[in-house]
Amino acid sequence: MENLYSLFQEFMDADRILLEEPMEKHTTFRIGGPADYVLQPASAEEVRKAVDVCRRHRIPWFIMGNGSNLLVSDQGYRGAVIQLYRNMSQADVDGCRIKAQAGASLAGLSKKAMEASLTGLEFAGGIPGTLGGAVTMNAGAYGGEMKDVLESVTALESSGQVISLRADQLEMGYRDSVVKRRQCIVLEAVMRLRPGDKEAIRESMQDLAQKRISKQPLEYPSAGSAFKRPKGHFAGKLIMDAGLKGCRVGDAQVAEKHCGFVINRGHATAADVAALMKHVQDEVMRQFQVKLEPEVKFLGDFPDTLL
Ligand SMILES: Cc1cc2nc3c(=O)[nH]c(=O)nc-3n(C[C@H](O)[C@H](O)[C@H](O)COP(=O)(O)OP(=O)(O)OC[C@H]3O[C@@H](n4cnc5c(N)ncnc54)[C@H](O)[C@@H]3O)c2cc1C
């Protein structure tokens, strides 16, 4: 551990190398045991070097944005979490384009677009993730998706090479992209928007924010929709129709306000959430013969019997 610490310190300030860091502090679920390391790089070069050290020393590593789509095991993570949120969040407007680093928040980017009278990114205002996480997952809401606005992405390949991908090379589908399949790290992206009316954009963003407040259980920690939308169905409706509204395991609960969300009522553990999700999957399969696939990503060890 000590040896690795000094290797990381060769290119990263000590206050951005966290040891035995509780992941509950870094996930919107407010759940997760300690990661051996949380590294907070401030540049693409630091990301590259961090991955290189991990690779050479056979340390598992994981790229994280804002942890808003993540369930970390109660035992934490034996390896290095490389967290891009906060330190890599530079964003610049140039005409109709916004070029931003992967750690920039979607909320901040939508606001920046609005202030520059650019339309197209309103849908992302209430998604609590980073640009990198959103590109990888092709995040979307209210009829908009990242694929509609992306012009190009700069990414680090697992070979250590930095590549540039045009929109037509990103192969973005529902919560899917070539970046995800090839396990690349998004370093930055360029979004191309359209000129619009600032007030109309502001109103549309406020409208969407109101919709979220009225429909989603934002008063509780969660990771958003727990399951992907199965073809021809809505996960939340299937879960409600299965009679699982409000169903609990420990402090993990199927939200009463929106059955697609699993919420943390206070002291939920990752095991509680995983057990609840497994129960929901089993019941929906038993009653409707529909397989629910988790949208939430799992980090660390989870018993095979769950999910
Ligand atoms: C209240 C709430 C509402 C939500 N609403 C929506 C919604 O409307 N639409 C929607 O799509 N999602 C929604 N989400 C889920 C989540 O915000 C998105 O999936 C978001 O894009 C995840 O971004 P993140 O930075 O938090 O990623 P993380 O949770 O940190 O990571 C998620 C995955 O992305 C990968 N990843 C992160 N950054 C990078 C990178 N730079 N390069 C490569 N891989 C990376 C991680 O390795 C991981 O596999 C919601 C979540 C919450 C809590």
Report on the biggest sheet: 5 strands, antiparallel
Compute the number of strand runs.
Answer: 19
Under CATH at level 1, the class of the largest domain stands as Alpha Beta
By secondary-structure content and strand pairing, the structural class works out as alpha+beta
State the end-to-end CA separation: 32 Å
Number of domains: 3
Helical segment tally?
Answer: 8
* CATH architecture assignment name of the largest domain: 2-Layer Sandwich
Strand order of the largest sheet: 6-7-13-11-12
Query: What is the helix content?
Result: 25-40%
Strand-residue fraction?
Answer: 25-35%
- CATH topology title of the largest domain: Uridine Diphospho-n-acetylenolpyruvylglucosamine Reductase, domain 3
- The pLDDT mean sits at 95
Ligands bound to this protein structure: flavin-adenine dinucleotide
Contiguous low-pLDDT stretches (5 residues minimum) are none
Radius of gyration: 19 Å
Coarse shape = globular
Q: Write the element-wise H/E pattern from the N-terminal end onward.
A: HEEHEEEEEHEHEEEEHEEHEHEEEHE
Comma- or semicolon-separated keywords:
307 residues; alpha+beta; Uridine Diphospho-n-acetylenolpyruvylglucosamine Reductase, domain 2; Uridine Diphospho-n-acetylenolpyruvylglucosamine Reductase, domain 3; Uridine Diphospho-n-acetylenolpyruvylglucosamine Reductase, domain 1; 3 domains; 5-stranded antiparallel beta sheet; 4-stranded mixed beta sheet; 8 helices; 19 strands; binds flavin-adenine dinucleotide
